[in-house]
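Example record

The entry below shows one chain as it appears in the dataset: sequence first, then structure tokens.
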Amino acid sequence: MSRDTCQTRRSLIAAGAAGVGLLLVEPVRFALAASKEEKTREGIGPVEDLMREHGVLRRVLLIYDEVIRRLDAGKDLPPGVVADAAGVIRRFVEDYHEKNEEQEIFPRLEKAGKLVELVKVLYAQHRASRGLTEVVLTSSTPAALANAESRRRLGEALRRFTRIYRPHAAREDTVLFPAFRSLVSPKEFAALGEKFENKEHELFGEEGFEKMVNQVAGLEKKLGIYDLSQFTSTL
């Protein structure tokens, strides 16, 4: 066998080995990239987490709007729907979402001397809304709903709650949360997001957010306001 033939054969073998190596490495590289992308999609930062929770709150406010409409019209309400909606507010918004804000977000802004007056108002609105939720819960029992005065108190509490929380959540989303994001390092931001997630799982189990969304959707269906297209307005 000539020297040129041997060299050619060695070159072909080397090329083949390199090709096999590429075939072995590329799937691993692809899998690692896909895993990293999936992790990025699933990772929720603390600000996005709080804003998603505001989405749950806003859907409960739509439930409250429908309850107010029916109370004003003297119509009956599906059994338990008001108490269940207020229960979402109590457990998910007040005992979880608001506490995260009061323990992790507000103190950092106060320490930095940023939005101090806004934070004071937000604290006060948290306290006021909790008192209103207590009224909603006590005024939405079957016995209370059969009493005209209790229905009036319920309607008033619901109106005051929605009046507080629509501007409250909007101001946090557009002013407070962006200011907070500028205060913390990427490392601290990521750690806080993980802390929020762990607390959510501790209180509500795996997929706690999704469970709350499904619970609210069930209440919307009971009231006939789940179909989004009914809110479309045309001239």
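Notes for this example: The CA atoms of residues 56 and 210 lie 10 Å apart. The first helix runs from residue 3 to 42.
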